[in-house]
């Protein structure tokens, strides 16, 4: 180890957790009681996986994500860095789910094509919300508790309801932005400024 390198913290896995040997778990991640991580799933560094949470086969989770108790992340979902998933949230993967074929036979993996949810950097998914795949949650967006997301969510959008609709904008720290007029928004906590144009929000250039 060189002087510029530092030792990464170890992975912590509760004895009651079920982590497949073929899963990849990043340094410093913590997996709590009764959580399950399936084969070929990948968790980045510094993640927290709460009690009873489920990560499906091949799901990828970025660095420093927090997935709370009993959240269900079905394949082929992808979470970028810094994503928060609240308790009992669900990411679906079947557009038209059936248990059996039209002939009454039990369906197998070959009988349907899974579709995934994509969550971009810094976004937050509220408790007991449901994201109906295929759908993309934009950067730093926030999905309110109990919402049902049926269409893509723009960057920085605050969405709520069934089905979820945009009710405002949030900044990087999650605080609702204040409307400063003429498409300008400001974070009341940090002072960061944003610009709205044709239904999208972007960070204003620093002056």
From TrEMBL:
GO MF terms held by the record: transferase activity
Domain of life: Bacteria
CDD domains listed in its UniProt record: LbH_WxcM_N_like
Short name of one Pfam family: Hexapep_2
Presence of the UniProt keyword Hydrolase in the record: no
Alphabetical UniProt keywords: Transferase
InterPro entries reported for this sequence: Hexapep (IPR001451), Trans_hexapeptide_repeat (IPR050179), Trimer_LpxA-like_sf (IPR011004)
This protein's name: N-acetyltransferase
């Amino acid at each position: 180890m060189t002087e510029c390198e530092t030792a990464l913290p170890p992975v912590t896995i509760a004895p009651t957790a079920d982590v497949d040997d073929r899963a990849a778990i990043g340094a410093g991640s913590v997996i709590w009681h009764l959580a399950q991580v399936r084969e070929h799933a990948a968790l980045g560094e510094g993640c927290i996986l709460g009690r009873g949470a489920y990560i499906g086969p091949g799901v990828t989770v970025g660095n420093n994500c927090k997935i709370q108790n009993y959240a269900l992340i079905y394949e082929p979902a992808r979470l970028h860095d810094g994503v928060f998933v609240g308790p009992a949230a669900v990411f679906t993967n079947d557009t038209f789910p059936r248990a059996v074929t039209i002939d009454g036979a039990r369906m197998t993996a070959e009988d349907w094509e899974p579709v995934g949810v994509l969550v971009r950097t810094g976004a937050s998914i509220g408790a007991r919300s449901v994201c109906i795949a295929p759908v993309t949650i934009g950067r730093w967006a926030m999905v309110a508790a109990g919402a049902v997301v049926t269409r893509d969510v723009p960057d920085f959008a605050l969405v709520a309801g069934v089905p979820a609709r945009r009710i405002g904008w949030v900044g990087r720290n999650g605080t609702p932005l204040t409307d400063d007029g003429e498409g300008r928004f400001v974070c009341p906590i940090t002072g960061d400024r944003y610009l709205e144009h044709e239904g999208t929000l972007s960070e204003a250039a620093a002056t």
